[in-house]
UniProtKB/TrEMBL annotation:
Source organism per UniProt: Vibrio marinisediminis
Amino acids binding substrate: 140, 217-218, 225, 249, 305-307
Metal-binding is among the record's keywords: yes
Cofactor binding comment, as recorded: Binds 1 divalent metal cation per subunit.
Name listed for the protein in its UniProt record: N-acetylglucosamine-6-phosphate deacetylase
Length: 376
């Protein structure tokens, strides 16, 4: 059965349509048409002063709705996290495992595979943030879990093929052979929690790297004589950079500078959200340490930032407030992460694409989210 949603504005990922409707059947987009042309009997929901955008995709989500993926590595936890983030505009996300044991890494891969098989709405894959990181830039991770993987160790994991797999690694700690193995296994590699010098980030390593994780945070800084990871990330055109845009992790001007430096399409918004998002509980456990929301910041006992307390809708609103055009901000939350994850049928509202959309009020508050043809 055909269904439709309409609004004063639709942004399809390329251009705007005024007073238009998005029409889908089952889980596939059929058309964008003027509201006046909709069949009279179509099941149809109208949002008056709103914009319909391609469904938001958040590639770094540690938790939500009171659940931390690290503490509950199951499809049920993924379901709860997706639900919590949907209320903040996220159509799809990559549940993200913070550095854990190899057993838990294996569990995370299997949980994501099961979640996709069970058609839990909103799961795009899984993000393994570590444990192949640099202890000099551990952030809130447990550095005792870090190691440099051998090919045998990589081979032993139950890699999955029905969902996207993203790995954040400090690429100076991972051999060229291991990076090549990951590339050949269709694993998306992003450099993060890295203390590399620009020299250590060789052309070979960069050619095997798809992106950089939470640009500016937990990476060696940009300096005149030493570009570090930040300078290299900004200067490596093929690689995307994800940024936490809560206004706490990264100064707005640093974000705007990154936007000037990167080719269009290579800067993405992530939340790096934790269990506290969409939950009344302001306190949760990670690896035996207590993380708490204090003044909208999530901090551990050492005072290190431990993820963010923000949703995608607010993250998009922030960058618009900082001076990014609305359409570019919407693409940073949908089109560009879809491209970064190689999700070919997401990130645009286009016939034949998966029926996924985010409906925002004129103040960028989430009104509704469409995921695979189901309106939430
Ligand atoms: Zn991190």
């Amino acid at each position: 059965m055909m269904k439709a949603i309409s609004a004063s504005r639709i942004f399809d990922g390329i251009r705007y349509h005024n007073d238009a409707a998005l029409v889908w059947q089952d889980d596939v987009i059929q058309a964008i048409t003027p509201i006046a042309d909709l069949p009279a009997d179509i099941e149809h929901q109208h949002y008056a002063d709103a914009v319909i955008a391609p469904g938001f995709i958040d590639i770094q989500v540690n938790g939500g709705g009171g659940v931390m993926f690290n503490n509950d590595i199951t499809p049920q936890a993924i379901k709860t996290i997706c639900q919590a983030h949907r209320t903040h505009g996220t159509a799809y996300l990559m549940p993200t495992l913070i550095s854990s044991t190899p057993e838990n890494v294996a569990k995370a891969l299997i949980a994501a595979e099961q979640a996709v098989n069970e058609k839990i709405p909103g799961v795009l894959g899984v993000h393994l943030e570590g444990p192949w990181l640099n202890k000099e830039k551990k952030g809130a991770h447990n550095a005792e879990l870090f190691y440099s993987p051998t090919i045998d160790e990589l081979n032993a994991f139950p890699w999955i093929v029905n969902a996207k797999v993203l790995v954040t690694a400090a690429i100076e700690k991972v051999s060229d052979e291991a990076l090549t193995w990951l590339k050949e296994s269709d694993v998306i590699v992003s450099c993060g929690h890295s203390n590399a010098t620009a020299e250590a980030l060789t052309e070979k390593k960069l050619s095997l790297t798809d992106g950089f994780t939470h640009l500016f945070n937990a990476m060696s800084p940009f300096e005149g004589r030493e570009p570090g990871v930040v300078g290299t990330a900004l200067n490596t055109d093929h690689a995307w950079c994800s940024v936490i845009t809560d206004g706490i992790h990264v100064h707005p001007n640093s974000f705007l500078l990154a936007h000037k430096a990167k080719p269009q399409g290579k800067l993405l918004i992530i939340t790096d959200a934790m269990a506290s998002l969409g939950s009344k509980n302001n306190r949760f456990e990670l690896d035996g340490q207590t993380i708490e929301v204090i003044d909208n910041k999530l901090v551990n006992a050492e005072g290190s930032l431990a993820g963010a307390h923000i949703g995608m809708d607010e993250s998009v609103a922030n960058v618009i407030r900082w001076g990014i055009e609305e359409q570019e901000a919407l693409k940073m939350a949908s089109t560009y992460p879809a491209q970064a994850m190689g999700a070919d049928n997401l990130g645009q509202l286009k016939p034949g694409y998966r029926a996924a959309a985010t409906v925002l009020s004129s103040q960028y508050q989430t009104q509704a989210v469409l995921v695979d043809g189901v309106l939430f």
